[in-house]
Amino acid sequence: MSRIKTQREYRLLRSNSQSHYGQWIAIDYAFLSPDSGKYGITVSKKFGKAHERNRFKRIVREAFRVFSLPQGIWINVRPINKPQSTLDIKSDLDGFQSAQQRAKVSR
Questions:
Q1: Residue 104 lies in a domain
Q2: Cα–Cα distance, 39 to 52 (Å, whole number)
Q3: Within the chain, what is the greatest distance between any pair of CA atoms?
Q4: Global model pTM greater than 0.70
Q5: Residue among 83, 82, 77 at smallest CA distance from 10
Q6: Domain of 79: which CATH number?
Q7: Residue range(s) defining the domain that contains residue 36
Q8: How many Cα atoms within 13 Å fall on the side-chain side of residue 50?
């Protein structure tokens, strides 16, 4: 899964996205391209000092490394609370994935 890098890509995602809120993270997502998925991480300075923001990004990247997402989905992750471990992020991503599966079943 590749990264969302440009401001144009973030704007495209934000204008077409839906949101999912977990205990630790908020996920903005949209199905924008049928072939490959992308993810981005947004952390404002209100979250904390640079080492705290960098740690959050490292935790999220590790969670995405071991987590499989549907093909073609674009995701932006924002913090709600300060997670203590990768397991906190994984639990929210599991909740997101189960919500996606429930949505597919109800369609």
A1: no
A2: 20
A3: 43
A4: yes
A5: 77
A6: 3.30.230.10
A7: 2-94
A8: 0
pLDDT tens, position by position, 45-73: 999 999 999 999 999 998 888 877 778 88
Residue 28 belongs to some domain of the structure: yes
Q: Domain for residue 106, yes or no?
A: no
User: Can you tell me the distance from the alpha carbon of 62 to that of 59, in angstroms, rounded to the nearest whole number?
Assistant: 5
**Which are the contacts of 10, defined by CB distance < 8 A and separation ≥ 6?**
4, 40, 42, 76
Instruction: Decide if 18 is inside a domain.
Output: yes
Those residues of the chain that have pLDDT short of 70 are 104-107
